[in-house]
Amino acid sequence: MSKEKEITIYDIASQLGLSAATVSRALKDHPAINKHTKKKITDLAGKLGYRSNTFASNLRQQKTNTIGVIFHELRSQFMVAVLAGIEKITTEANYDLIIGHSSETYEKEAANARNLFHKRVDGIIASLAFDTEDLTHFAPFVQKGIPVIFFDRVFENSDGVKVIINNRKAGYEATKHLIDQGCKRIVHVTANLKRNVYSERLAGYKQALSEAGIKCKEKYLIINDLTEKASVDAAKKIMAMSPLPDGIFVTNDFCAAVIIQTLKEANIKIPEDIAIVGFNNDVICKIIEPKLTTINYPGIEIGEIVARNLVSHLQGNANMNLTNTIIIKSELIVRASSLRKKTNKSSAKK
Amino acid sequence: MSKEKEITIYDIASQLGLSAATVSRALKDHPAINKHTKKKITDLAGKLGYRSNTFASNLRQQKTNTIGVIFHELRSQFMVAVLAGIEKITTEANYDLIIGHSSETYEKEAANARNLFHKRVDGIIASLAFDTEDLTHFAPFVQKGIPVIFFDRVFENSDGVKVIINNRKAGYEATKHLIDQGCKRIVHVTANLKRNVYSERLAGYKQALSEAGIKCKEKYLIINDLTEKASVDAAKKIMAMSPLPDGIFVTNDFCAAVIIQTLKEANIKIPEDIAIVGFNNDVICKIIEPKLTTINYPGIEIGEIVARNLVSHLQGNANMNLTNTIIIKSELIVRASSLRKKTNKSSAKK
DNA sequence: AAGCAAATTGCAACCGATTGCAATATTTTT
DNA sequence: AAAAATATTGCAATCGGTTGCAATTTGCTT
Description:
Two copies of one chain form a homodimer.
Chain A: H1 9-16, H2 20-27, H3 35-48, H4 54-61, E1 66-71, H5 77-92, E2 96-101, H6 106-118, E3 123-126, H7 139-143, E4 148-151, E5 161-165, H8 167-180, E6 186-191, H9 196-211, E7 221-224, H10 228-239, E8 247-250, H11 253-265, E9 275-277, H12 284-287, E10 294-296, H13 299-314, E11 325-328, E12 331-333
Parallel strand pairs in A: 1-2, 1-3, 3-4, 4-5, 5-11, 6-7, 6-8, 8-9
Antiparallel strand pairs in A: 10-12
Helix pairs in contact in A: 1-2, 1-3, 5-13, 8-9, 10-11
The structure holds a DNA duplex.
């Protein structure tokens, strides 16, 4: 427990009869320093257990080498995957991450933003909470020229870079698939329509219905917060409908899994009575019985792209401000939960 | 995009004809400063958009107000819950978190430790990777008197504070429950026995068997890495046994769920043919069919306790070094996957 | 060996907040 | 009203690394 004194460049300098400036440069591999002295310095630094003081360095250089991340929720595979992608790129580039999560409330999101602002992060990566209605809490960053990049939950018409998938197309494909499977009464379970991801998927849903000449009924739209309880309620609401719907497009795999579970307990057969499609391609898709048809939302790639954009902007290799929106590919993955017709693809692996 | 100059205490001081020292004290609510001047200062600071420079402050105070967290994996409900618990306490106490994850390898764990050491965190919270064999990578912290606290995956005989559950007891109860349900040939699927959590659960398993006069067979012990693939393999191994086992105690819910799924596909009935108990009480327990009996491992509480201990040590309110091990309660939660006898508790909710 | 270019190294002023101690202002005591 | 006590404020050094510019050393040319 003996708290030894920290070694500084001054200690190294005096032990070698050099100046602190030389030591500083040597440790950063500055080209002006003689190879031979450089070696002496790094050797001694190693021996003494020198560790550079980030604060002194940050203070002088006026930058923190830290990126702030604001997530609405961490309990989803998708989000963790995005995080892993971000982490991979940022650690390679030697940036630290400060992670804040909003638990889906605007209030905490704004508090996180303030905190990160005070911590002087060099850049921000964010996905919005359910109830965020404007981006004023990010204004301080914009004013100071600190780059902000959004993914997944974004304001489509805002400035700043956004990395998203084509949610409308995904919603369209999910619904179209159900229609192709013979569904006529298709429920859509989704969340707060203020969020682009949900409103766009809904738009795709409506488009597919209208193209098929199916009228979109108000009562077939269920909006909730995707929690376990809300999912059970949604299932009950669906069971109470008469006639029973024959298809459900759920905007989230976990919610879809709970709905399947609840319906099965009521002896409703999936997919024979009701076919179901989820969204995200979480592991849960393969654990629920029947396995869940879903939209693959590639989290790692999104995280990597988001981070790569931010980092190269910060390093001056590219100017983010020229970019506006980056759209990542997503695709429908068909599994048993929606397969009623034994079509070309034959039976999905059982 | 106009990068305005940052406001410092000197700016505030000169605008008010005061000294920087006074401004600094006023902003920290130092008792020696006159209420009236204090108000003038905070008002102006607000108006100018002053934000304190953490680096200057950290540099001067020689502490970072940052806690490092080393996780072996983030993709589990349990770990995310622990993180949420830690976050709750540390943000209340105004500490930042730097999170590193080892992906279950010693190498990355050590790299994370080095990084956090260089970042000069004030304290460390860690859970060990599968293949970590010693704690030398934490030695630098100990030497400098930086507190390190472990949870879940720990070395039981090491110095330092550990927060764990009684894994032996949990393993015993899980196995005993299976025995009580009439199981005689009980398989145990677990992971690297270097980790206390797994070796202890195994010990509990053996104890329960021996008390019931059941011989513990080598071939009934399956050790893997708990991934999806490994879980499928484990299930196949089990199906190949003759006679078929009639009970499985799995050390992890996700792995248990995959095994259930795989067994069901082979037309094995759960729990009639084989009863199954998992570990952790992840949400997946309630989604898998039948619902999974498991051990409740209270992540949030563990996170809170770990963080509370560390924070109060750092704040000088308590000395962690007097504590050695904190044991949290865990309990068996019985659900359908193991219920063969309709006993006193009658049928678990269907 | 003088002259000049290139390679190394050092000087000293930052970056912005903190804090022990001294100085000044205000209030209370006698 | 002077002395003593208390409340406020300022001085100036400090934390440790960085960097423009100057100084010094070394190498090369003729």
